Amino acid sequence: MNTRRAWPGALLACLAMPTGAFALDWDAITLNGYTSFEFETQLTDDGNGDPNHSFDADLFDLVFNFQVSPRARAAADVTWEHGSASEDGRGNVALEYGLVEYSFSDLVRLQAGKLFVPFGVFNEIHTAKPVFLTVKEAAATNKPSRIVDNARRFFPRWAVGLNLRGDAPIGDSSFDYDLMISNGEQEETNPFEEDNNEGKSVTGRMRFYLADRARMGLSFHYDAPKFDGVERSTAVGAEANIRIGDAEILLELVYGEFKLTQASPDDPDKQRQLGTVAQLSYLLPTGTTPYFQFQTIDPDVDADGDDGVLLVTGVNQEVDAFILKLEHNYATGGDKSSLAAFADSRFHEIKAAVVLGF
Amino acid sequence: MRNLLLITALLGLTGPAVADAPPYTVVTSADSPLAALKPEEIERIYLGRVQTVHDVKVLPALGDVESPAVARFLDDVLAMDGRRFESYWRKRLFSSRGVPPKVEPSAPELLRWVRKTPGAVAVIPAAEGVPEGLKALTWAPPPTAAPPTEPAAPPTAAPPTAEPPPPVPPRRPRHPQRRPPPPQRRPPPPRRRPPPPRRRPPPPRRRPPPPQRPPADAPTRRVALAAMASHIAIHS
């Protein structure tokens, strides 16, 4: 027997065996993704924006779905952000979510893994630029420290744990829900690997879909992070999305309460924070969508002058499969906010993006 | 005028030939246990809100997305145009809520996939009829639907095995059981006086809602479905 000929054959046979035993049919696999290339320039001399007119290879995401059996699914979103180059310590590579799901029924689906925390409007969309209008996702309810420095996140963006999810009709309407138990957020250990305390974080959201064109939802979140001076955090949110013809209104309000660690009896024992987002848009037949978004964040409801406001006015234009985004950001804040460091407590910025979803 | 025709047809005052027959048919494989789907079931399937109907795991698909038939289906059943449909499914897809319906522009490939895939449901142009090996998922009127006031009007939907079955669902048949009830169900006059308890009008959920109106620009809007084929899920 010619061994030179036999080895490649044996190798191929070995490679073929696991493939035949475990591979999925191509019909059971879907591959999608999105990418965004951005440009930002600050129009005023000082501000939180980009004074250097920078380009940004913002992200490239691949989204995988594997329908392993009629009831079992695995899904993952892998992102490469800001031109990831680990050798140079540049950019960021992350598993946005990686989960397995088992469907007991449409009403009861159990997910396990690393997931987007199911709270409010924007966190489940996360950085998927093709599915929201602005260049950056709304900050006031999702990343409020982008507007004023001392604002806290109402909830972590990711968590590892179990999530119960389902959909069901109610007469003409329907609802869906998420109920997640997770390690919660902390920085002592990797929260996606181990918890730093015995308490668990609980997050839930329920949405009602009314008459095809309206959606209303409620969310809540509880955690005992025990870091960054916070013993316990709770947040509740309300959202509404209404479509009238080609006009669309989006509203979100989130209220958070943080029980603080007191270094001395004179220190405040809690902080109450309020964030709101209101957005109006109109889809024209040309694929053009002008929009206006109004965001407010009040990091401490009991204190005056620390609030921040972000006004975003922009337009999306569909060109072939691309979405072109151009917007003006105007940020202003109270005299005790971090924005007071800038002239007239305000700054202007232009943002643009070329986005492709596939 | 179109709404008037629709209501008239649903009340059985006219035959199906007068109704605005949709240019699409919802089909499944001939050996599928699925026999009939209500319009609201089809809506929920294509919105991903249900995956199991009548104990069958359903896999939805769309035919040629550039065809008027699919655009009409999206408008009729989902009250969306191509852009809204695409945007809706992108949100679900990127938030790990599931994958969109399969889009197969090639009609022969789509039909082959439906025949071989258990639970597959597809929208095809009504002009194609019902190809061999497939059957139409005809809409069956629920028992509570208003009976026709004239006996001559046959139901708009035929049994699943009828050949050739009519395309389903009919124009805007989203909740046919909630169409205006027959006269005998209305509360007795005088209308302003509350009737006796036993003859009280139906509870609010059974009252007829105002007829759903299609978007004002629905007939004229050019639906950009071409892009959807390249955006939505990639299938082999």
Verbal overview:
The complex is a heterodimer of chains A (358) and B (236). With 358 residues, chain A is mainly beta. In chain A, 7% of the residues lie in helices and 55% in strands. Chain A has helices at residues 3-22, 122-125, and strands at residues 29-42, 54-67, 72-85, 90-103, 109-116, 158-170, 173-182, 201-210, 214-223, 230-244, 247-260, 270-282, 288-298, 308-319, 322-333, 346-357. Chain A has a 16-stranded antiparallel barrel with strand order 1-2-3-4-5-6-7-8-9-10-11-12-13-14-15-16. The N and C termini of chain A lie far apart (51 Å). Chain B is α/β, with parallel strands linked by helices. Chain B has 6 helices and 7 strands. In chain B, strands 5-4-6-1-7 form a 5-stranded mixed beta sheet. Chain B has a two-stranded antiparallel sheet with strand order 2-3. In chain B, a hairpin with a 2-residue loop joins strand 2 and strand 3 (56-57). The model of chain B is unreliable at 1-18, 144-197 and 201-236 (pLDDT under 50). The chains are: A mainly beta (358), B alpha/beta (236).
